[in-house]
Amino acid sequence: MAESPAIKRKREEKEGKNGSAASQNERPAAGDFPLAELSVLKVLRESAREKAIFLHGRVNSASGDETDAVVILEKIPFQEENIAELLKKHTAFQLQMSNDIYSTYRLFLPPELNEIKTTVVYPATEKHLQKYLCQAVYLIQETGEDYKNITLPFIESQSFSIQWVYNILEKKAEVDRIIYENPDPINGFVLLPDFKWNQKQLDDLYLIAICHRRGIRSLRDLTAEHLTLLKNILQEGGEAIQKRFGLAKTQLRVYLHYQPSYFHLHVHFTALSYDAPGCSVERAHLLSDVMFNLELDSQYYQKCTLTFALRADEPLLKEFQEAGKA
Amino acid sequence: MAESPAIKRKREEKEGKNGSAASQNERPAAGDFPLAELSVLKVLRESAREKAIFLHGRVNSASGDETDAVVILEKIPFQEENIAELLKKHTAFQLQMSNDIYSTYRLFLPPELNEIKTTVVYPATEKHLQKYLCQAVYLIQETGEDYKNITLPFIESQSFSIQWVYNILEKKAEVDRIIYENPDPINGFVLLPDFKWNQKQLDDLYLIAICHRRGIRSLRDLTAEHLTLLKNILQEGGEAIQKRFGLAKTQLRVYLHYQPSYFHLHVHFTALSYDAPGCSVERAHLLSDVMFNLELDSQYYQKCTLTFALRADEPLLKEFQEAGKA
Q1: pLDDT attached to residue B31
Q2: Is B76 in the A-facing interface, judged by CB distances under 8 Å?
Q3: Chain A contact for B38, CB < 8 A?
Q4: What separation in angstroms does the CA of A301 have from each of A154, A308, B103, B257, B292?
Q5: Contacts of B302 (CB under 8 A, 6+ apart)
Q6: CB nearest to B93's CB, from A35, A279, A326
Q7: What is the value of ipTM here, to two decimals?
Q8: Of A3, A107, B8, B136, which is most buried by a Cβ count within 10 Å?
Q9: CA of A131, closest CA in chain B: separation in Å?
């Protein structure tokens, strides 16, 4: 399943990637972050839609040292149980515009009814700043030839570890999280909740089916030979979700990612009403469309041009650029 | 192009659809909305991601009358120019969690630095309540046969007016908004900004190409015969956007909707970095994929099963349900 940020973070720390070990000696005591002394150097990223902003700041200590920090501010969602109180206790309500039955106002609330979630990374290294920096994205049109000449050699050179996937399939990890399994080694799979989903509400339901068969890296490896596996995932996965969570198949979006985040075939199940990250047309491929295309032409995914976006800092982009293809 | 909510609203009003005319006599004076006297009856919809909530409320007047209202609360985005002030003037900053270099806090701000945009529809009719009510969505798998037997007869029975599209093509409206035109009656098109885009920043760039040729209702009507038209839209549209707005083709998402919102072929161009509404995999079809499929098989879009979502209140859903297909 897709790694949660927490897990990614842990791995990076183990591998010493974020440099936190090196800087631990000078680290201030937890809970000590001097917000009022922060100078904002740069907005790394902002999302008007999600009401969040990512800041690169610097703290000047009394001793003259400067320490970088990443500060993420995000307004929190409205909570149904607080609404009545919030409407009664406003400090001001100012008319902005009025037209017939429609009007808009500026509403001001007491601080405690309108908090902001703040996440701090402190001290932050250059790696952290890069991680949160808004990167330009580029659309890649990968032909079948491009896959063979650029993408496949790149994947093979990277030796991404997918031991954590094998641990799940071999019941060495996350055994108690498995929702359903078809144990067939060729056409079977396990279904489990994605780490992004807390299983507390169906609104953002998110599960992952991971196939037992090894060596199917992605969409690009699929042929008509895999139709039984795909059909099992679509049908049995949907039934298992209906049985366990009560959500009908007509309320599920079932798709693969290309590029995937790891190269062992897996399928995403998300609630149709949930605007899930990664379900946009330049990354997601509906499993039912994939099956239709394989029935039409077994070599469809070896021949077709696949379109996907790469961020400026992704190494695969450089490979495409060096080949004159991006 | 897709209608903006404002335009939709105007049309509904003209057609007397929302009943505002009937209720205008009892309408309170503008700017008079008694927020503190509002009883919240129901949450019509909420978006945790966008920090917005849609409420159905009722106002009890002194005379004992009850009047329905829709109240929409939405937190506003952070503004870069206010950030420094906001960090300095907080009223409280409380540690929630701390782990190594990572920590989270609850930040509380003075009311004036953290306003909430409030939109009121008052008095609201049943139509308004329905409009804002969160509707269940259902995934439809429309086979080629389903299209012929269910969808096409439905479209033809509805006689949706697309006079506004013809007005654009004939230069009777929006002439000054046209960004580019290829005037060929068979393989030409006009390109203009979508109403959702204010043209002030590239972040949410959104344009629409509308083909000159009439009678191509949607993706379902496309065959290899239309490849020249589609190629022109993809190439010339992309070039025109690069020339006018400076955004390269590799930073554009170019796609069709199925179902479309009106049945005259049009193509959406959005900034790749913009998480545009309607670009998710169950509605959007990349123009480059469409062209690949038509080259593979001229009848691809007459034969394939197309997947799309319908809301519970959409009449086409009833047609599929009555045919036992949803």
Answers
A1: 53
A2: yes
A3: yes
A4: 18, 14, 44, 23, 12
A5: B144, B147, B220, B223
A6: A35
A7: 0.75
A8: A107
A9: 14
The average pLDDT across B137-157 equals 96
Interchain CB distance below 8 Å, A78 and B122: no
Contact B101 A123 (CB under 8 A): yes
CB–CB contact B253 A285 (8 Å): no
CA B228 to chain centre: 29
Distance from CA of A248 to the nearest CA of B (A): 9
Of A38-42, B19-23, B188-192, B233-237, which gets the smallest average pLDDT?
B19-23
H or E element at residue B182 = strand B180-182
What are the φ/ψ torsions at residue A68 (nearest 5 degrees)? Answer: -75, 150
pLDDT of residue B13: 34
pLDDT in tens, A246-260: 999 999 999 999 999
Q: Choose among A30, A275, A304: nearest Cβ to B98.
A: A30
Burial bucket for residue A19 (CB in 10 Å: 0-12, 13-18, 19+): middle
Distance CA A170, CA B14 (A): 65
What pLDDT shows up at residue B11?
A: 34
CA-based nearest distance A121→chain B, Å: 5
Classify residue B3 as exposed, middle or buried by CB count within 10 Å of its CB (0-12, 13-18, 19+): middle
Question: Is the sign of the CA dihedral A310, A316, A322, A325 positive or negative?
Answer: negative
Assess whether B128 carries a catalytic annotation.
Answer: no
Please give the Cα distance from A141 to A151 (Å, whole number). Answer: 12
Q: With CB atoms and an 8 Å threshold, state whether B101 touches A124.
A: yes
Min Cα distance B115 → chain A (Å) is 5
Q: Do A87 and B38 touch (CB under 8 A)?
A: yes
Residue to mutate among B25, B51, B74, B281, with most A CBs inside 10 A, is B281
Q: Rounded to two decimals, what is the model's pTM?
A: 0.76
Alpha-helical segments (H) within A24-94: 83-88
C-beta of residue A72 within 8 angstroms of C-beta of residue A55 = yes
Cα gap A203→A201, rounded to integer Å: 6
Tokens found for residue A27: 């680290």
Q: Is B52 on the interface with A (CB under 8 A)?
A: yes
The maximal CA–CA distance of chain B, rounded, in angstroms, is: 71
**Averaged in consecutive runs of 10 residues, what is the pLDDT profile of chain A (326 residues)?**
36 36 40 85 89 94 88 92 91 89 92 93 91 89 98 90 91 92 98 85 91 97 98 98 96 97 96 91 98 98 97 93 92
Contact (CB<8Å) A292/B309: no
Q: Output the average pLDDT for chain B.
A: 88
